[in-house]
Design brief:
- By secondary structure, the chain is of the alpha/beta class.
- It has 3 domains: 211 residues, 3-Layer(aba) Sandwich (Rossmann fold); 147 residues, 3-Layer(aba) Sandwich (Rossmann fold); 49 residues, no CATH class.
- It has 15 helices and 14 strands.
- It has a 6-stranded mixed β-sheet with strand order 1-11-10-9-12-13, sandwiched between helices.
- Helix 3 runs parallel beside helix 5 and helix 8 packs across helix 9.
- The longest helix has 31 residues.
Length: 437
């Protein structure tokens, strides 16, 4: 693989993690010890919010009334597609039972978790789409109780469009809490009396670290960092579209990586020329975020051929991966590591982020090498069952006893012996393993 970095990032997604870990650890410990009172105190100090934590039905209805019908129509458009896709994912997860040998039956059941906590960011941007991606998918999976949690604005509470969306998607409880205190409240069962079995949803580095620290005590969707985009582009790509898509994701935050992998030097140079001008034309909040992200985390990598592009793409395992190149079928079959793949110029990350149907809660920081994004299956436990006849014990119990003794586990072995003696009195069985050479 031959590559040349025309632009190299000066920072990585791990920059600043040590400070974040200590802050989050201290907050989680304080909230677990002090409960709801400490949680409220953090809401007051960090978000300047002293209103209701549990959003009432009256507050939801009042907020929904403030959302224009055209906005509701767009939210419903997105919800319909995301829910339909999640429903199909759920249908693909099946219960079954199979007879492995005469009288020995083994099977699996798909059981949804009882309670899911869905974090919906609402700081720099009001992430309405994240409410759809998390809450609607949990409901499609059959989760009994879904808690949605989103940061409140001072004196105003949770964004009205987020409240409308979470309610539309089926949230059973909605908390006006942000950051670590929101994650902690869902994990510890504060304000609702229902501790989450799994925590899902995107968030800033403090939210991501809180989920990471709580993993094991609760499930999480995935280990997440700042959102990422990578674009594979050859000479056939439109540099203006490529540049637009890179900027489109860089506005997420100061630390959002944007990477271009290309086999065409002219395209790379044109994209690098266009990006700063596109950023300059953004509104202030987006401009500041994109400027920092492109300066510190943006990369442009010139590759010798398409196989080199594929190799480096798999190495990065980007959260969002666009392919704007010839022979799209080859790329679809060749690429292995990514959170979600966007095939062809006509399909951009923003479509998947907002409304096209696939989930936008996706693996970052290289996690696409071993996991996919949020799906109906993340809320479901695949558990196994087995049953067998007495006759099946002739083979199974004897084999289990011999293997147990081979391992030195005599008590295990005798559970098989005892059944054989009970079910087949007077018969003899070979219950000792053959000696090893």
């Amino acid at each position: 693989m031959t590559v040349e970095y025309l632009k190299k990032a000066t920072k990585t997604s791990s920059t600043g993690e040590d400070d974040t870990r200590q802050i989050v650890a201290d907050m989680l410990a304080a909230i677990e010890a002090g409960g709801e009172e400490v949680c409220r105190d953090y809401a007051t100090r960090l978000d300047n919010y002293s209103g209701n934590i549990v959003v009432s039905r009256e507050e939801i209805e009042a907020a929904s009334a403030r959302v224009p019908q055209s906005v509701k129509d767009d939210i419903q458009f997105a919800h319909e597609r995301v829910r339909r896709f999640a429903d199909k994912q759920r249908e693909a997860l099946i219960d079954f039972e199979v007879e492995l040998s005469p009288g020995l039956f083994a099977g699996q059941r798909q059981i949804p978790v009882a309670t899911a906590g869905c974090y919906v960011p609402g700081g720099r941007y009001a992430h309405v789409a994240s409410a759809i991606m998390s809450v609607a998918t949990a409901k499609a999976a059959g989760v009994e109780h879904v808690i949605a949690c989103s940061p409140p604005k001072p004196g105003a509470g949770v964004n009205p469009a987020i409240l409308y969306t979470a309610d539309l998607c089926g949230a059973d409880s909605i908390l006006a809490l942000g950051g670590v205190q929101g994650i902690a409240a869902m994990a510890f069962g504060l304000f609702t009396g229902r501790a989450a079995d799994i925590l899902v949803g995107p968030g800033n580095r403090f939210v991501a670290e809180a989920k990471r620290m709580l993993f094991g005590r609760v499930g999480i969707d995935l280990f997440a960092g700042p959102t990422e985009i990578a674009i594979i582009a050859d000479a056939s790509a439109d540099p203006a579209i490529v540049a637009s898509d890179l900027v489109g994701q860089a506005e997420h935050g100061l630390d959002s990586p944007a990477w271009l992998f290309s086999s065409d030097r002219a395209l790379c140079e044109k994209v690098m020329e266009l990006v700063p001008g596109m950023i300059e034309k953004l509104p202030e909040t987006a401009r500041v975020a994109a400027e920092n992200a492109w300066r510190d985390y943006g990369e442009v990598v010139l590759c010798s051929d398409r196989e080199s592009m594929a190799q480096i793409s798999d190495q990065y395992a980007a959260e969002h991966l666009e392919v704007q190149a010839e022979d799209l079928d080859w790329w679809v079959q060749r690429l292995r590591n990514y959170g979600s793949l966007f095939v062809g110029e006509e399909t951009t990350v923003a479509f998947g982020d907002k409304c096209s149907g696939t989930n936008h809660i996706l693996p970052t920081k290289g996690a696409g090498r071993y996991t996919g994004g949020l799906s109906a299956g993340k809320f479901i436990k695949t558990v196994t069952t087995q049953r067998m006849s007495r006759e099946a014990n002739r083979e199974v119990a004897a084999a289990a006893a011999r293997i147990s003794r081979l391992e030195g586990m005599e008590a295990h072995a005798r559970t098989g012996d005892d059944r054989l003696h009970k079910y087949f009195p007077g018969e003899s069985f070979e219950l000792a393993p053959a000696a090893l050479d």
